[in-house]
Amino acid sequence: MAIVEDINTSILSKALDAAVLRQQAIAQNLANVNAPGYRRLTVQFEADLAAALHGGQAAHVGRLHPRLVQAPHAEGNQGTDDELARLSEAVLHHHALVTVLNRRIELIGTAISEGKK
Amino acid sequence: MDYLQAFKISASGMAIEKMRLELTAANLANMHSAAARADDVYRPLRLQQQTVPLQFGQQFEQMVIASGGGSRVTGVTPLDVDARMVYEPGHPYADAKGFVAYPAVDQTAEMLNLNLALRTYEANVVAMNAAKTMASRTLEIGRPG
Asked: What is the pTM of this model?
C-alpha cells in the first residue's frame, strides 16, 4: 500500500536523523570551543537530498545518509554564537519534522478507521 | 537514535570548563602567597585539553549512529613565568636585597579565563537541553493529539 511505505516517510525519518546528528555535531563543537587547533564539524544532508531529487535520482534517496564535514582550518574560539544559532535551528527543524511525521501517521489512521465505517 | 551520546559530549565539555574554573580559582587564591626562594614560588596553572573525535557509523544499513566525541583533559601544567619581585625589606621572606618573591599571576588574564569558562559552560548546558528537548519530542511521534 502506497500510503504507508511511500518515499516521503523514509525521507522524513532520514531528515530526523540528520537533525539529531547535527545537534551532536554542534554539541561537539561547543565542548571543544577552547581546544586549540580544533576544526569544527558540520552535518551535510539537505544539499545531498536536493541534489538527488533534482537530478531525477529519487531511487537513490533510500541510500542517502547524513555525513560529517570537518572544516579545513581551525578558526579559534570565535563561533559560539553561530553554533548556538544553528543549534536552535536544528531543534526547530526537528520539531517541524516530528509534526509532519505525526500528520502522516494521523492520515494513515484516518484511512484505516474510515474503512471500518 | 542514541541521545546518550549527545549528553556525554556536553557533559565532557562541562567537566572541562568546570576544571578550568577551578584552576583559575586556585591561581587567584595563590596570588599573594610569597615564597622564601624565587624558584619555590607558585606558578599559575593552565589546562590542556584534547578533542575526542566524533564519528558517524552505520548500523543495520539504515540507522546512522554517532560514536566518540567530546573533549578530555590531557594535563595541567604550570606556566613558565618568573616570580614577581616586590621590594619589602621587613618581610620574613625578603632576600639579601630586600625583595620578596610573589607568584606572577596575571589577574586580568585569570578574570578573562574565568568568564570564558563560565560562558562555555553555559553553551554546553544549552546544547544538552537541546538534546533533552529533541529526545522528548521524538517520544511524541505517533502519539494522538
From this structure: 0.86
